[in-house]
Amino acid sequence: MSNPYEPNLNKPGDQPQQPQQPAWGQPGQGQQGQYGPSYPAYGGQQWGSQSPYGAQQPTTTDGLSITAFVLSLTCCLSFIGLILGFVGLGRTKNNQRKGRWAAVSAIVIGGLGTLALIGVVAVAVFVGTSAIDPRDAEVGECGNILSEDRDTITMTSKDCDSKHDLEIVYVGTYDEIEDSQFLPSDPDDLTDAGISAGVCIDLMPSEDVATLDEADDELRYGIVTEDTSPNGDDAFFCYVERPGDAKLEGSLLG
Questions:
Q1: How many whole angstroms separate alpha carbon 101 and alpha carbon 62?
Q2: Which of 43, 154, 197, 206 is the most buried (most CB within 10 A)?
Q3: How far from 109 is each of 73, 93, 99, CA to CA, in Å?
Q4: What is the pLDDT of residue 177?
Q5: pLDDT at 30 (0 to 100)
Q6: How far apart are CA 98 and CA 65, in angstroms?
Q7: d(CA 128, CA 2)
Q8: Could you give the CA distance from residue 254 to residue 248 in angstroms, rounded to a whole number?
Q9: How confident is the model at residue 20, as a pLDDT?
Q10: Cα 5 to Cα 69: distance, rounded to the nearest angstrom
Q11: 220 phi and psi angles, rounded to 5 deg
Q12: Distance (Å, rounded) from C-alpha 245 to C-alpha 234?
């Protein structure tokens, strides 16, 4: 019988036992004592290591887009803001730069501002080319009243075959009014319908007055002078219109 308390001796023919592997974390033979191997951080990269492509630069705001937005708010430079807005749209694509909102706003506001500017210019050109000038007015010329106040009136030429506001019935110079018995002491009183009728009827040929009376006995007379403070050689003309918003049709003296 074997003695369980005796040391375990190798019997003849037994293979020598392999030395046991050291326990996890224990130093093996021939190794310096340590508490186990260290492992890299998650993902195989040490904390704080630099990217091989360098640090990413922060996104900056696109100054051109901001400039475009500011210009689009102005009355006369909105067209430039519109153009710069399209440029800024490309510069802020794919978040290359901040400020895309400014580029988009510049395009919208600049577009509307440009259309408004074109409209204003078109109206100004139309009025400038079609406005009736007392120096160039002619008897029988028809027109519309564009604006009117106590001191000034703006009229534009209109084809007499279509409905219109007025017709010019006399053209002369202010010295004729000065020689008239109906000259008011205050030139501003020429805008009074009664005084205008007296001046114009006195200066017009009698046959023209008769023609107008026969065409419409409710016509009202008006006077337009070249200057708000006319004198001597300044041009003026007389015109007739119907009361209220009634329109004239055809030429009365044409």
A1: 10
A2: 197
A3: 7, 20, 16
A4: 86
A5: 47
A6: 9
A7: 133
A8: 13
A9: 53
A10: 98
A11: -110, 140
A12: 30
**Against a cut of 0.85, is the pTM above it?**
no
Domain boundaries, given as residue ranges, for the chain: 63-129, 142-241
186-239 pLDDT, tens digit per residue, is: 666 666 778 888 899 999 999 999 999 998 888 999 999 888 888 888 999 999
Write the pLDDT tens digit of every residue in 20-46.
555 444 444 444 445 555 555 554 455
* Neighbouring residues of 62: CB distance < 8 A, sequence distance ≥ 6: 88, 91, 92, 97, 98, 99, 100, 102, 103
Residue 195 to residue 174: CA distance in whole angstroms? 15
Q: Which two tokens stand for residue 144?
A: 């519309």
